[in-house]
């Protein structure tokens, strides 16, 4: 089954870079976002709308942030924090700093579909995938890393860095970092850069613009408040853990197994049993059915460059618990429809 993804064409003349394919918006990942934007779920006003499970954004502790901002609107700060318009701008900024046009960045698969835009579009840098698979829970192996490094090296292309984030690998960066230290001595205290998740999302090149200086000042102050940050981290971890257990248990009750994770805002669920053929087209057919039949926007593994068809990224931290319960009920319904009679 062929899946066609429609891309809205601009009605006015635009620059070559703004209409080039390197923006990455011909991916199912962005097509799912468009479907959500056109028919967003709302418990009261649109209960049959599309539920957004493609956004890896942490909203479970917004109440703590709102409370702090209300109480500390005039706070000052000496914190050394660089703030950008979300992780998108930060990732591009690091790419500009670490690599020149034509250089390569190594990224383990499956990785966030937006990296094909964020890291490449304006920097001219190439992405070389570090191929990971489910045989070892998608962890980076020395062999996979060495193979990925060898590809650009054989073509005399400089490797500017290795990008490991929660969105790029379901098990987080701790163990992966040890691999890099052993193989290349690549990671040192000075070249580790921590990038937080997005404050908000935007379209096309607006993703890379700066937030206001007032917002930067306020957020830097908040991050330097030790009492607040310790409470926020503790509470946020507890809430994310509860959400993770909730979605894993719900998917298990629907007959779906997930990759075990220890961090992040999403899980990787395995629907390979529903594939008639283990192909990208078969995977996209499942994605299309889930998007239009039960109105759930999830991300197919192929849009994240996963080499094994049938894996899907499901975000759980960007919605209320009640909405998550609705989403799980829809997944149950979908599985019941697809099971052999």
From TrEMBL:
Pfam families, alphabetically? Aminotran_1_2 (PF00155)
- What CDD domains is this protein classified in? AAT_like (cd00609)
The signal peptide stretch is: none
A biological process (GO) of this protein is: amino acid metabolic process
Q: Which residues form the Aminotransferase class I/classII large domain?
A: 71-201, 202-331
UniProt-recorded Gene Ontology molecular function terms = pyridoxal phosphate binding; transaminase activity
Q: What are the alphabetically sorted keywords of the record?
A: Pyridoxal phosphate
- Stored PANTHER family: AMINOTRANSFERASE CLASS I_CLASSII DOMAIN-CONTAINING PROTEIN, BIFUNCTIONAL ASPARTATE AMINOTRANSFERASE AND GLUTAMATE/ASPARTATE-PREPHENATE AMINOTRANSFERASE-RELATED
Q: What is this protein called?
A: 1-aminocyclopropane-1-carboxylate synthase
């Amino acid at each position: 089954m062929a899946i066609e993804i429609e891309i809205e064409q601009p009605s006015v003349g635009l620059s070559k870079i703004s209409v080039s394919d390197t923006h990455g918006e011909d991916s199912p990942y962005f097509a799912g976002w468009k479907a959500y934007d056109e028919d967003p779920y709302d418990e009261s006003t649109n209960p049959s709308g599309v539920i957004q499970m493609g956004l890896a954004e942490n909203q479970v502790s917004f109440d703590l942030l709102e409370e702090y901002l209300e109480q500390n609107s005039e706070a000052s700060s000496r914190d050394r924090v660089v703030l950008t318009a979300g992780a998108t701008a930060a990732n591009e900024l690091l790419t500009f700093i670490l690599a020149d046009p034509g250089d390569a960045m190594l990224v383990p698969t499956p990785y966030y579909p937006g990296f094909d835009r964020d890291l490449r579009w304006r920097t001219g840098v190439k992405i070389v995938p570090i191929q990971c698979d489910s045989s070892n829970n998608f962890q980076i192996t020395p062999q996979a890393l060495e193979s990925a490094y060898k590809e650009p090296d054989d073509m005399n292309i400089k490797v500017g860095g290795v990008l490991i984030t929660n969105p790029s690998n379901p098990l987080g960066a701790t163990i992966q970092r040890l691999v890099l230290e052993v193989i290349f001595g690549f990671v040192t205290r000075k070249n580790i850069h921590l990038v937080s998740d997005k404050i908000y999302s935007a379209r096309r090149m607006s993703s890379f613009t700066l937030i206001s200086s007032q917002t930067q000042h306020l957020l830097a102050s908040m991050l330097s408040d030790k009492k607040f940050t310790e409470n926020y981290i503790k509470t946020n971890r507890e809430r994310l853990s509860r959400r993770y257990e909730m979605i894993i248990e719900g998917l298990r009750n629907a007959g779906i197994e997930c990759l075990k994770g220890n961090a992040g805002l999403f899980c990787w669920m395995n629907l390979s049993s529903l594939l008639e053929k283990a192909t990208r087209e078969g995977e996209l057919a499942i994605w299309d059915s889930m998007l239009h039949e039960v109105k759930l926007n999830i991300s197919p593994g192929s849009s994240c460059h996963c080499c094994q068809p049938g894996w899907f990224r499901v975000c759980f931290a960007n919605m209320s618990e009640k909405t998550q319960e609705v989403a799980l009920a829809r997944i149950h319904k979908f599985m019941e429809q697809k099971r052999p009679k």
